[in-house]
Amino acid sequence: MQSIGDANYKSIWKLIKVPLLAFLISRAICFMAGSLFVAHASIEHLFWRMAPQQPWIDWTARFDTGWYHGIVMNGYSYAPGVQSNVAFFPVFPSIIAILSRCGIPPLYGALIINHLAFFGALIILHMIALKHTSNPACADNACWMLALFPTSFFFSCYYTESLFLILILGCFYSIDNKRWGWAVLLAALASATRIPGAFLYPVILLEWLRVGGWTLFSIGRRTAWINLIGYVRTNWKTLLLIQLSLSGLAAFMVFLTIRFGDPLAFYKSQQTWGRPWQGVLRVTWDGVCHSPFKPVQFMNLTSLLVGLALTFVVYRRMGEGYALFCLIGLLLPGSTSLLSMSRFVLVMPPLFLCAGALMGTSVWRFPLLMAMTGLLVWFTGRHAVWSFVA
Question: Which residue has the higher pLDDT, 13 or 192?
Fold first, then answer.
């Protein structure tokens, strides 16, 4: 007779098996590729290095790492009209700074936090996928596609991607289980981690309204408004709580006002990175006309176009709140430049959930994952030798 302990063990193993395998295999690929490229490439002396004697981790500290590390070591600074570290939000560097005060070097602290967060994110992604698809194969696909996505090496880097992803997925899981307090808390933290964290507010609000029988497409129905009024009357405290979803961003703006006298310093600094508004159609057309088959440009263009197509699938399978989150997350940066688009989609889990569901048990699943793995190796290596990928 099977004991309760054995049953619990098997249940836990069933829950974490695929996320664990996806995590271990994808991270092994990234670290081997990054280490080999660093060890065998000639990196010019003009590039800074955080761990030149440790190639196995040195590759994880590139480009924006310098900004986050500067915040960890010296705090925030702001000079109007030039690139400043106020463009980078505080939650991630604050955690690294706390670990540093405890004696853990910042680069190691980032590795610890990001890998714990990414593993946790894969588990939550798998759980959400199972709930929305009821198909283990679709849930497995979502994990593998995210873990092996060509730019998923960022989940191992001194960047915010892993922490931001688990905050988003935690928020979505809380919404699915109608734990509005947890959803608001995680959204608030996400809004102080990166700007797209603010896009969680409409997700929470629209999903809360949907529970009350009101959706964007029921605006013209009188019964929907009558139901909404009754719903708000009995749940007005929750509605007020939801407004705190942006409190992380608000707190950062208060800090910027006190420190630098400008609550929008983060936005003004970000404008100095040279991403003028052009409109998504013009950006897409320029991407098609100019070197569309170069690996980086192709990946950015494909990420935008496939992401927009999948947004309609997200709407049909998950609802308008999740679709709106993806649509805003794609259109805002996609209307300025294709640059880094393949990194931005990493933190849009509904796209991977629906891509995994569409893939199902297709015979193309394995060839697609193999192609993604090959690109992952290449992009990891290019990033490791200071070639900008995303």
Answer: 192
What does the radius of gyration of the chain's CA atoms come to, in whole angstroms?
21
| Residue 170 belongs to domain spanning | 4-384
Q: pLDDT tens-digit profile of 19-39?
A: 999 999 999 999 999 999 988
Task: Please give the structure tokens belonging to residue 321.
Answer: 């709140």
CA pair distance 263, 265, nearest whole angstrom:
6
Tell me if 390 is assigned to some domain: no
Cα distance between residue 347 and residue 326, in whole Å:
9
The residue among 246, 266, 252 whose CA lies nearest residue 188 is 246
CA–CA distance, 283 with 291 (Å, rounded to integer): 13
Q: How far apart are CA 57 and CA 54, in angstroms?
A: 6
Tell me which DSSP letter residue 185 carries.
H
Domain count, the chain: 1
Q: Is residue 206 part of a domain?
A: yes
Estimate to the nearest angstrom the gap between the alpha carbon of 191 and the chain centroid: 12
E runs forming strands in 287-358: none
The rounded mean pLDDT for the chain is 93
Residue 218: the pLDDT is 83
pLDDT digits (tens, 9 = 90+) for 81-109: 999 999 999 999 999 999 999 999 999 99
Contact 149, 167 (CB under 8 A): no
Q: What are phi and psi of 44, to 5 degrees?
A: -60, 150
Tally helices (H) and strands (E) across the chain.
18, 0
Q: What is the dihedral of CA 43, 24, 354, 184, to 10 degrees?
A: -90
